[in-house]
Amino acid sequence: MSLALSFITIFLGGAAVLDWAFAGHLHSRCHFLLKCFLAFGFGLALWSCSYIVILFIVGPHLTWIWAKDMALSFLAATYFWFRPRYHHSKAHLDAVRQQAPRWLRVVFFVSACVAIMVFVGSTMRIPEGEWDAWMTWNTRARFLFRDGTDFATIFATEIAHADYPLLLPGLIAQTWMMLGSESIFVPPMIALTFSAITVGALVVAIVIFRGTASGLMAGLVLLGTPMFTMSAAIQYADVVLGSYLLVTCIMITLAASGMPYRVDRLLILSGAAASMMAWTKNEGIFYGLSLLVALAICKFGPSQKRLSRLNRITSFLLGALPVIALLAYFKLKHAPSNDYLQRITFSDIAGRIMDLDRRTTLFLAIGHKFFEFGAWNFFLICLPLLWLKFGRQSDRLTVTGPVIMALVFILLGLGAVVLITPYQMDFQIATSMDRLLIQCWPSIIFAVFLSMPPLHPQRRNSSSSKMFGNSG
Amino acid sequence: MAFLGVMQLLDREIAFWEKFEAHPLIDERYAGLKKVLPSDHRLGHITDVPPDSHIAAALYYQSQYSLAPWLIVTNQDTQYVIVDLLNPTRAREFCLLHSLEPVASSVNGVILAKRQHEP
C-alpha cells in the first residue's frame, strides 16, 4: 500500500510537472514516451527532495512522509482535473515517422537485453555495489532509515563524503521506509531505473529530432559503452548525475528547437533538472553553472526571438531556485566542509597549473582516454570527429549550441579539477576520470547525434526540417 | 563500432558466468555483533593492517556501513571498540597488546571489545 502510494506520487507528480511544462500542442507516441521517461526522472527527484524537506522540518516520521506523499498526489491529481484541454497539432509528426531498418531494431533490442543481463549478473555478484555505493550512498541511506530521530549523525565528519547531497540516500531510505524493510535490492533497482531513464530519454529525444534510425543508433552507442552498464550495476551515482544532465540538455534543446512549446516553461524545467544534478553530487553545481553560462552566451535557435536572453536566464534560475535553496540550507546548516576544498589553497592552484609534469600527465591521460574510454571503444574520438564533419552547419549549431558549449565548459572544468587536485594526480586520474566522463557521456552522444543529419532519411517534411535544423 | 561494443559486453558476460563467484556480503562479516552492540552509539575501530593503507580504509568504512547507526570513530575516547583483524589467529595477542577485553565476536576476526582502561 505504502509502496503503491509512493509509485503514484512519483509518476503523477512527475507527469504533472511535465504536462505543465510541455503545455500540449505536440502529441505523438514519441513525445508521450519522452514525457514518460522525463516524468519518472522528475518524479523521483521530487519524491526525494520532499522527503528531505520533511526530514529537516519534522524528522523521519513515517506519518508525515505518508501525509507528504498524499498531499503531492492530491496536488498532481487536482492539476490534471483542472488543467486546460490542449488542442494537439499533428503538424510535425512526419519528422518522427522515418522507419529504422529492421536489422538496427534487432541489434538494439539484443544490446538492451545484453546490458540488462550484465546488470543482473553484476548485481548478483556484488549486490551491495562497489566502494562509493556502499561507502557514500548506502551508508547514509542506512543512517537515515535506521537512526530513528537522530538523523543528524549522517553529517558527522567520520561518515565518508558527508557533504555530498542527499538525492540518492533520500531515495533509497524512503523506499526502505515504504517497504518497511531494508531490502538489499532497492539500490540496484534505483540504479536500473535511472539507467533506463537515460537510455530511453536519449533514444526518444533523438528519434524526435533526427528520426528512428538515429535514435536507435544513439542508444546503441550508449549501450555499447560497457562502462555505462558497469557503472550502473555497481550503483555509482555517476549514472544518476548523467541522467539529469541529459534531461537538462534535452529540455534546453526542445526549448531552442522552435517547436510550438512554451519556451519559458521548458527552461524553468531545465533549470529544475539542473538543480537535481546539484542535489545528486557536488560537481552537479558546476554542471548547472556551465549550462547557465552557455544559455547566456549562445544563440538560441529558432526560439531566439521568442524569449529574450534575460528571460531565458531568469526562467532557468527560477526552475533551479527551490532545490538550490534546499541545497544551500543543507550545505550551510548541516554539511561539513568539503575535503577537496579544505585541502586546497590559491597558491597550490597556481603552482599546480604551472607544473609542467602535471600538465603532461593530464594530456597523456586525456590522450589515453580517447582510445580506451568506457572500458573498450573508440567512440570518444569518433564522436567529436563526426561533429566536426557534420555539426558545424550554422542552422543546426544554433539549436545545439548551448548544449555543446556547456559540455565543452564541463569537460574543460573537469580537466582543471584533475590538474589542481590536492590528491595524488595518478590516483585522481585512475579513480575519477572515467567516472567523470561517464556522467557527460549520454549528453555528448545526444549533442553529436543532434548535430548530424538523420541517418536514414525516408520522409522529409520541409517545415519540420526547418524547425529541427535538418538541412544536412 | 557500437555493435562491437555490445559484443565486448556480451563477451564479458559469458566470461563472468563461466567463473561466477558471488562476493561475500559486507554485512556477514559484522552480523555476529549486531545484537550485542552497547547503548553508546560511538564505537572505536582498530585493525591489524597499517592505518594508512587501502585495506584499513576499506575495513573502517565497511564497519561503518554495516553497523549504522552506530558511529564508528578512529579516536581513542570510546569505551567499546570494533577489532577488525585480517589475521584472526592473532586476535588474543592483539587484544592483550592494546589492553582490550573481548566482549563478543563475529566471523573472520571481527570482535567487539571493551577498553580495560577507561578512556
Looking at this protein, list some descriptive labels.
heterodimer; A: 472 residues; mainly alpha; 0% strand; globular; disordered C terminus; B: 119 residues; alpha/beta; five-stranded mixed β-sheet; 4 helices; 22% strand
Layout of strands and helices, then pairs:
The complex is a heterodimer of chains A (472) and B (119).
Chain A: H1 2-22, H2 29-58, H3 62-82, H4 102-125, H5 131-146, H6 167-179, H7 186-210, H8 212-223, H9 226-233, H10 238-256, H11 263-280, H12 283-297, H13 309-334, H14 339-342, H15 346-354, H16 356-372, H17 379-390, H18 394-419, H19 425-451, H20 462-468
Chain B: H1 2-18, H2 26-30, E1 42-47, H3 54-67, E2 71-73, E3 80-84, H4 91-97, E4 100-105, E5 110-115
Parallel strand pairs in B: 1-2, 1-3
Antiparallel strand pairs in B: 3-5, 4-5
What does it look like?
The complex is a heterodimer of chains A (472) and B (119). Chain A contains 20 helices and no strands. Chain A is mainly α. Chain B has 119 residues and is of the alpha/beta class. Chain B has one domain (25-115). Chain B has helices spanning 2-18, 26-30, 54-67, 91-97, and strands at 42-47, 71-73, 80-84, 100-105, 110-115. Classes of the chains: A mainly alpha (472), B alpha/beta (119).
Structure described in brief:
The complex is a heterodimer of chains A (about 475) and B (about 120). With about 475 residues, chain A is mainly α. Chain A is built from 20 helices and no strands.
Q: How many domains is the backbone of chain B divided into?
A: 1
Which strand-content bin applies to the residues of chain B?
A: 15-25%
What form of chain B results from the Cα inertia axes? elongated
What composes the largest sheet of chain B? 5 strands, mixed
Radius of gyration of chain B: 19 Å
What is the average of the pLDDT values of chain A?
84
Level of helix content of chain B?
25-40%
Topology, number of strands of chain B: 5
The portion of residues forming beta strands of chain A comes to under 5%
Q: What Rg of chain A is obtained from the alpha carbons, in whole angstroms?
A: 22 Å
Shape of chain A: globular
Q: Biggest sheet of chain B: strands side by side, in what order? A: 2-1-3-5-4
Weakly predicted, low-confidence segments of chain A: 459-472
Order of helices and strands of chain B: HHEHEEHEE
Oligomeric state, counting identical vs distinct chains: heterodimer
Number of helices of chain A: 20
Instruction: Give the helix proportion of chain A (percent range).
Output: over 70%
Extended strand count of chain A: 0
Total number of helical segments of chain B? 4
Q: What is the CA-CA span between the terminal residues of chain B?
A: 63 Å
